[in-house]
Specification:
Largest sheet: 5 strands, antiparallel
Organism: Aerosakkonema funiforme FACHB-1375
Strand content: 25-35%
Number of helices: 8
Protein name: FAD binding domain-containing protein
CATH class of the largest domain: Alpha Beta
Mean pLDDT: 94
Number of domains: 3
Order of helices and strands: EEEEEHHHHHEEHEEEEEEEHH
GO molecular function: FAD binding; oxidoreductase activity
Pfam family, one: FAD_binding_5
CATH architecture of the largest domain: 2-Layer Sandwich
Low-confidence stretches: none
Length: 274
């Protein structure tokens, strides 16, 4: 879609060149959502492409994903064989959209859009990811994936701040993972998303939840939970009033679906590891 109200288009090669951030400005990464509907409140787009941030970097400490990394890149990069957690990231891409979108859309853009149905948010929460953000003076600070999104299309980002990098510790990438997503139809908005991570040596379990609530949540166990323990934890840690209720599904139905996905997701991991 043409954005007829845009007056200025900037393509800086250095963030320091972006000064005096104003209302009506927006960062532009892949643009798959930005150009999908009218943006009457925007006057200036600041394109991040020319900054040439590294897309994927493997280090002894873990994985760094540049915010402008195209989603498709996550599918074809060569990772260490022991990084079984990568499968959750790749599942998030494969369940998101067609290759026409994933070849353009960026990981950081999806995270910053902060839709409740984001595939990446619950995965990042389950893998214990953290985000590097540049403030208005372009000084970096860190925040956990769990704290980043505060509601539907709401994040901790202040005007002019930009997500620079996603960081996942090496130890978390060696967990076994499973990704579950369910909607009314395969291509419809998700009603619930569950990303499960299991540590085979310690039996720790982490569930990253999305789509069923307004912002991603984490439920953890120090042991392999029973179905009853999963149901109890879901009920005690996320009040029924926090589940989304709309014309697609009731809050009670989303809660029930989420419990089932948690149980099935963990069962599949344990079966594969047996």
């Amino acid at each position: 879609m043409d954005l007829h109200y845009i007056e200025t288009y900037l393509r800086p090669k250095d963030l320091q060149a972006v000064t005096n951030w104003q209302p009506g400005w927006a960062w532009l990464a892949g643009g798959t959502w930005l150009f999908s509907e009218p943006q009457l409140h925007l006057k200036t787009l600041v394109d991040l492409e020319q900054l040439n941030w590294r897309e994927i970097e493997v280090t002894p400490e873990g994985l760094a994903i540049g915010a402008t990394c195209k989603m498709e890149k996550l599918l074809h990069f060569s990772y260490p064989e022991t990084w079984t957690g990568i499968k959750a990231l790749q599942s998030a891409v494969n369940h998101l959209a067609s290759f026409k979108v994933t070849n353009v859309a960026t990981v950081g853009g999806n995270i910053c859009l902060a839709l409740p149905v984001s595939n990446f948010a619950p995965v990042m929460v389950a893998l214990g990811a953290s985000y590097e953000i540049f403030d208005r003076t372009y000084q970096p600070y860190q925040i956990s994936a769990l704290e980043f999104q505060t509601g539907a299309q709401k994040t901790v980002l202040q005007p002019g701040e930009v997500l620079r990098k996603i960081w996942i510790p090496q130890s978390n990438l060696e967990w076994l993972v499973n990704f579950k997503r369910i909607g009314v139809t395969a291509t419809a908005y998700a009603l619930s998303i569950v990303a499960t991570a299991y540590h085979p040596k310690t039996s720790q379990v982490r569930f990253g939840l999305g789509a069923c609530i307004w912002s991603p949540r984490l439920i953890e166990f120090s042991h392999i939970p029973t179905s009853g323990e999963i149901a109890e934890a879901l009920l005690s840690q996320i009040p029924p009033s926090e589940f989304i209720e709309d014309d697609k599904a009731s809050a009670a139905y989303r809660q029930h679906l989420t419990q089932i996905l948690m149980q099935r997701s963990l069962a599949e991991i344990l079966c594969q590891n047996s």
